[in-house]
Amino acid sequence: MKKKRLKLKKQVWFVIVLIIFGTIGIIAFNKIHAKYELENTTEYKLKEIGYTEEEITTLKKYYDEDNLKKFISQKKDETLLEFMNSEHYIHDNYERYITFMEENRTDIKTAIEYVNLNLDYDYYEAPVEVDYDLKNEILVNKYYLLDSSFVPEDLIDVTNKKYFYGDGFQVKKEVWDNYLNMWNDADAMGFYLIVNFAYYPYSEHESAYNKAKDNNGTVYADNNVYRPGSNEHTTGLALDIFAKGALTTATFPESEAYKWLHENAHKYGFIERYQKDKEYITGQSAEQWHYRYVGVSTATFIYEHNLTLEEYLTYYK
Ligand SMILES: [Zn+2]
Which residues surround ligand 1, an ion (CB under 5 A)? Predict the structure, then answer.
């Protein structure tokens, strides 16, 4: 009996020791395993390359787990981070930013500004169809072209010779209503405003372009007539405005009437669309007589911030 009890005791001890070592073993294994797991995460590896927690969060905004992995095998990308932390950064444009920056030796801010406005493309190189949902704020230029079937709604005929020289024209009703308010106020100030160009149908522009192309080639036609669909007058929202005593493109910019228009047109919903010093954005040399209706609040914002329509839509919409 005595012997048996002793034997049993030995077995108990054996089990206890087994449990203790087993537990220690499992804990150690788990710890090693956890460490192995952690060191294998993308985040850990990125930190090893030098990315901070904050920078990893920034990367995660634009890359999912799978795409994040590609950064592990590279040097820390400081340029990319700087881009991502810049105002108005658009991730889809990243390759274009880099190309533009290299080709033009500019800084990040300029690259973002230019590329966001499509200025890294040549005129008509990558035409995008106009966003018609913008309504009165619709953008038409050498990058955003109207479809050949486009005809503005609510066009009215202006036939009262008091308001124009040359032939009568068509324009959108809302534009004309606001113009008449402006006309009256200008008149009260002693300025007699005169319109000489308004709605320009797509088909007419197309004929003019084709004629120029047939006679003088595409380059000439592109530079002088512009491609059909790229003319803002086709929207029915633009007016070329002059004044009595200043009826030419040479005299009008020097006139008092222009000064008044420049400072007051926004109150009636119009912007001076092609400003001096903004040619690189609009793709159009300065035209102090070309006014574009966008609505009062937008026009006022654009005027007060000294913007082009392109900049307004890119940065504030
Ligand atoms: Zn014009």
Answer: 240, 290
